[in-house]
Amino acid sequence: MTNLEYVIKALENLGGKANYKELYNEFEIFSRKELTVNTKAGIRAEIQRHSSDSQAFEGKKDLFFFSRWFR
Fold first, then answer.
1. What does the alpha-carbon distance between residue 4 and residue 1 come to, in Å, rounded to a whole number?
2. Is 62 helix (H, G, I), strand (E, B) or coil?
3. Origin, by domain of life (predicted)?
4. pLDDT tens for residues 11-46?
């Protein structure tokens, strides 16, 4: 699975909403990878690339949104 697929699966398992700490923990369970600082940055980058709420949005799949509570 790709990191994007792990992020989607983790968020689905968390009910569709999570802060980064919750997301990282769930991602670690599904991917069976110990998360490094770089992996965490990659997770945030995937979310930003796939969210029209982000300046990094690539214009392809708009999968995520940021609520004012998202950290």
1. 8
2. coil
3. Bacteria
4. 999 999 899 999 999 999 988 988 999 999 999 999
Predicted model pTM: 0.81
Closest of 10, 21, 25 to residue 64, by C-alpha: 10
Name the one residue in this structure whose structure tokens are 């969210």. 51
Domain boundaries, the chain: 1-71
Q: How far apart are CA 54 and CA 57, in angstroms?
A: 5
CB 41 within 8 A of CB 57: no
pLDDT on residue 71: 47
Q: Is 10 exposed, middle or buried (0-12, 13-18, 19+ CB in 10 A)?
A: buried
* End-to-end C-alpha distance for the chain, whole angstroms: 25
